Structure formats: structure tokens, C-alpha cells
């Protein structure tokens, strides 16, 4: 399975592609951080990110795109930017006919480190170990995108089965 993970940050959007399967070794296929200048008009920043996400989906042809689910924060500007970029990732995947999975930061941390309250440094260390990398991917947005992809590989299939069962019960 190939998963493209997206850490949707307006200033530094992490994109990570991981190949693997539950119980099998994971392999890094690609990692990048797409940057947009804070002084650039928001529309132009979003356009740049939309293009980068569409290109990544087209180039790496993932089986699933995993995106960080926007969660409540005290900083409304940060939440807005994150939500906007997450929406771009959903559109890029959907246009390409690729399913999208959303994971909260605590779900990703729990999948990768075993603790939903792990610190960023722990996430980065585990991503480095799991992908057998020589160093922690930087900036943190790169490691976060890879962690999203790993979370989907390890937990996505189980969650899809649970969701299907819930839908089946709801339609009875």
C-alpha cells in the first residue's frame, strides 16, 4: 500500500509518501515540505499549495491520502490556514479518485509512538526508526506528514472495516 500523508500547514505543508503494510517493513518513497511566504496574499499561497498537492498525488499515485484532521486551537488564524490547506488535499485526492482518511494528531501520535500525548521529538524519533532514516526529517512538518502516512498504513484498514460495519448497522 502507498499512502501520501499531508501535514496541512499554510506556511510549511508537509508531504510524505510511505509504502508498506501492517506487519511489514515501511519504506520512504518521498518527503518534502512546500513553503509559502507569510507576506504573500493568502489566495496565492493556497494556489501554490493546491498545485503542489495535485502534483504529488499525480506523481506518486497513492492508494490513500491521509490528512491531519483539523482540531480546535486557541489561535483562529492557525486553524483557518490548516483547514484551508486540508481542504486542498481533500480536493486533490478526490479529483484523482483516491480515498481520503482523516486522523487527529493524537491518533497519529498513538499509532507511531504508542502514546497519544507524545511530544514532537518522540514522533520524529519513531518516524526515523520506523523508516530506517539516517536522521529525523526536518522541519517537523516533514516528519508529521510521514507519521500520518504510517498511521494510515497501520490503522486505516481496521478503521475502514469499523466504518463499514457502522454504516451497515445504520441502514438496517
Total count of domains? 1
Please tell me how large the radius of gyration is. Answer: 16 Å
Oligomeric state of shown chains? single chain
Distance between the termini: 32 Å
Task: Estimate the strand proportion.
Answer: 15-25%
For the record, the CATH class is: Alpha Beta
What structural class is derived from the secondary structure elements?
alpha/beta
Report on the biggest sheet.
Answer: 5 strands, mixed
Please tell me what the overall shape is: globular
The helix fraction, in percent, is 40-55%
Placed side by side, the strands forming the largest sheet appear as 3-2-1-4-5
Number of strands: 5
Low-confidence stretches: none
CATH topology: Nucleotidyltransferase, domain 5
Report the CATH superfamily: Ribonuclease H-like superfamily/Ribonuclease H
CATH architectural designation: 2-Layer Sandwich
| Overall pLDDT level | 91
What is the tally of helical segments? 5
Defining key terms:
172 residues, alpha/beta, five-stranded mixed beta sheet, 5 strands
Protein model, in words:
This protein has 172 residues and is α/β, with parallel strands linked by helices. The longest helix has 31 residues, at 140-170. It is globular. β2 (12-19) and β3 form a beta hairpin. The model has no long low-confidence stretch (mean pLDDT 91). It has helices spanning 42-60, 76-95, 105-113, 120-130, 140-170; strands spanning 2-7, 12-19, 27-35, 64-68, 100-103. A five-stranded mixed beta sheet has the order 3-2-1-4-5, sandwiched between helices. 52% of the residues lie in helices and 19% in strands. The chain is built from five helices and five strands.
Amino acid at each position: 500500500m502507498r499512502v501520501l500523508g499531508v501535514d496541512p500547514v499554510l506556511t510549511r505543508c508537509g508531504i510524505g509518501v510511505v509504502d508498506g503494510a501492517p506487519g511489514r517493513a515501511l519504506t520512504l518513497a518521498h518527503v518534502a515540505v512546500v513553503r509559502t511566504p507569510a507576506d504573500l496574499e493568502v489566495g496565492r499561497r493556497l494556489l501554490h499549495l493546491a498545485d503542489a498537492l495535485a502534483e504529488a498525488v499525480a506523481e506518486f499515485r497513492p492508494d490513500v491520502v491521509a490528512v491531519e484532521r483539523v482540531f480546535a486551537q486557541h489561535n483562529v488564524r492557525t486553524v483557518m490556514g490548516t483547514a484551508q490547506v486540508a481542504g486542498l488535499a481533500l480536493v486533490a485526492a478526490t479529483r484523482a479518485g483516491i480515498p481520503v482518511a482523516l486522523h487527529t494528531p493524537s491518533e497519529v501520535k498513538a499509532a507511531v509512538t504508542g502514546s497519544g500525548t507524545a511530544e514532537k521529538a518522540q514522533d520524529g524519533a519513531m518516524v526515523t526508526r520506523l523508516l530506517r532514516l539516517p536522521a529525523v526529517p526536518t522541519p517537523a512538518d516533514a516528519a508529521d506528514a510521514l507519521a500520518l502516512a504510517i498511521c494510515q498504513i497501520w490503522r486505516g484498514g481496521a478503521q475502514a472495516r469499523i466504518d463499514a460495519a457502522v454504516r451497515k448497522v445504520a441502514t438496517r
